[in-house]
């Protein structure tokens, strides 16, 4: 879909700026690939869904970019946009939590690290949550937990399949116990969702770690990861230090996790929509 079409005003649906504007774009029009280090023309990278044309590395995709990728004509209705993070612990380390929030909000134009929306995926009505790693590492605080829970509850009420695209370093340490409680809350909501027999497709983008992986991200009926995504609870460096052993090559990468049965599929970003569509055909029947 050409980028120009993203700007078309659609009734009832949220008008948003496209992924290219949501990205943090440095001066100049070139980007350096995080994996191969090659210099890539930014427009080429955006047109290639933020996948490096030289080495195929999947860079971060913004939450809205993800909705555009997966939903028909980039159309959707956003929910729960008004939920704003609080700072119950008055947390301070190198900078205050409020400063981190303000900077992330300024940079991403998001209120927090997840966007809830309803739309159609190849004509299948779906409830979808897209996480955004650029917002404090996609970490799960009270707002992300509440948004995921509300998306699950709305999927139950509206009898819709659920898709959650995770991209997160884990729980948000700045919210302490309040962030850890989101693991229980989202998992309990997911248990209620499972009683409906509606499908939940969990997509793990690089990285999906910690409390997010240890709660809703690993509970999908089908768990799909993007190539080379880092997936796990504690990171490899922490594990190596703890057990004082060298870890296998590619430990916790999507392909490694697939080999060991932790996930169901590794799917290239360009094939993600079609793959989820086929899964929905299977679970809920083909659409007209
Ligand atoms: Zn590359």
Map the helices and strands.
Layout: H1 19-22, E1 30-32, E2 39-41, H2 42-47, H3 63-70, E3 76-79, H4 97-108, E4 114-121, E5 124-131, H5 142-158, E6 162-168, H6 176-194, E7 200-208, H7 210-213, E8 222-225, H8 236-243, H9 254-259, E9 265-266, H10 272-284
Parallel strand pairs: 5-6, 6-7, 7-8, 8-9
Antiparallel strand pairs: 1-2, 3-4, 4-5
Bound molecules: zinc ion.
Structure description:
The chain has one domain: 2-enoyl-CoA Hydratase, Chain A, domain 1 (Alpha-Beta Complex). 34% of the residues lie in helices and 17% in strands. The protein has helices spanning 19-22, 42-47, 63-70, 97-108, 142-158, 176-194, 210-213, 236-243, 254-259, 272-284, and strands at 30-32, 39-41, 76-79, 114-121, 124-131, 162-168, 200-208, 222-225, 265-266. The strands form two sheets. Strands 3-4-5-6-7-8-9 form a seven-stranded mixed β-sheet, with helices on both faces. It has a two-stranded antiparallel sheet with strand order 1-2. Helix 5 packs parallel to helix 6.
Short overview:
This protein is an alpha/beta fold and 288 residues long. The protein has ten helices and nine strands. Mean pLDDT is 91; it is low at 7-22.
């Amino acid at each position: 879909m050409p980028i120009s079409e993203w700007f078309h005003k659609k009734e009832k649906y949220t008008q948003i700026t496209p992924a290219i504007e949501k990205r943090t774009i440095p001066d100049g029009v070139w980007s350096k690939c995080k994996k191969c280090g090659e210099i890539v023309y930014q427009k080429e990278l955006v047109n290639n869904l933020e996948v490096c044309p030289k080495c195929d590395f999947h860079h971060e995709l913004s939450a809205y970019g993800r909705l555009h990728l997966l939903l028909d004509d980039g159309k959707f209705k956003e929910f729960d946009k008004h939920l704003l993070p609080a700072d119950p612990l008055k947390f301070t380390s190198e900078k205050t939590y409020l400063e981190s929030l303000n900077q992330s909000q300024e940079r991403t134009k998001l209120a927090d690290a997840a966007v809830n929306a309803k739309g159609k995926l190849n004509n299948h009505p779906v409830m979808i949550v897209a996480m955004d790693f650029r917002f404090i590492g996609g970490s799960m605080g009270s707002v992300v937990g509440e948004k995921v829970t509300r998306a699950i509850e709305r999927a139950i009420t509206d009898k819709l399949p659920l898709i959650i695209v995770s991209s997160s370093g884990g729980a948000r340490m700045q919210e302490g116990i309040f962030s850890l409680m989101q693991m229980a809350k989202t998992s309990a909501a997911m248990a209620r969702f499972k009683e409906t027999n509606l499908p939940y497709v969990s997509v793990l983008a690089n990285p999906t770690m910690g409390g997010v992986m240890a709660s809703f991200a690993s509970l999908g009926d089908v768990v799909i990861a993007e190539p080379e995504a880092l997936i796990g609870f504690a990171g490899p460096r922490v594990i190596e230090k703890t057990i004082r052993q060298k870890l296998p090559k590619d430990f916790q990468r999507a392909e490694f996790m697939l080999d060991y049965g932790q996930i169901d599929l590794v799917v290239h970003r360009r094939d993600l929509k079609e793959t989820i569509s086929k899964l929905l055909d299977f679970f809920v029947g083909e659409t007209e």
